[in-house]
Amino acid sequence: MTSLTGQTQENSKPGGLSRIQEKNRNLILDAALSEFSRKGFSGATVERIAAEAGMSKSNLLYYFSSKEAIYNATLAHILEVWLAPLKTLNQDGDPAQELAAYICQKMEMSANFPEASRLFANEVMQGAPQILPILQTDLKRLVAEKSLVIENWIEAGKMRRVDPVHLIFTIWATTQHYADFSVQIRALTGRDLSDPEFLQETETSVTALILNGVGLSWPPEGE
User: pTM of this prediction?
Assistant: First the structure.
């Protein structure tokens, strides 16, 4: 599976870390994602995270002082990666192309990083005890900013009037469903997003459902 830390490695290098330290930190975060997504915070252990990262517990604790510190860093990184596609939504672009690209990126992230989606969903369902301040500040500001982009498209007559926040919620819910409920999807269809053909079919269907619902023609004529 693609490494989650590899998605933002160049843009999020912690200050003052050497190349080897950065590599070890990313190994810890990838191992922690696997452990926390399988065991939850209470069931996860620093020992197993260290073993999966290929280092001793004492070496791991050089980078993170506690299990809680590892968990918080893992969630913060998930949020950083998960929100990166929303940040690219461009007011000057064509709304159908912009939203289609966003949906596609979100769907592919659900395909590549299902553990990250499930861990984030579990944290939120428990009341977001570790990341609520981020949701109430950074995430709230980003959603407000991109809702204004959508509102401007609506005011320009480029798409049907909908509540921009609920449109963003719908995209999140629909795309991440395929990661968070992958067991149910496999039970019903015998397939999941690890199947490239099913991934393509899902992207096409979900994009058409959402874009046609807001008055945008999709797929483009001739495709």
Answer: 0.87
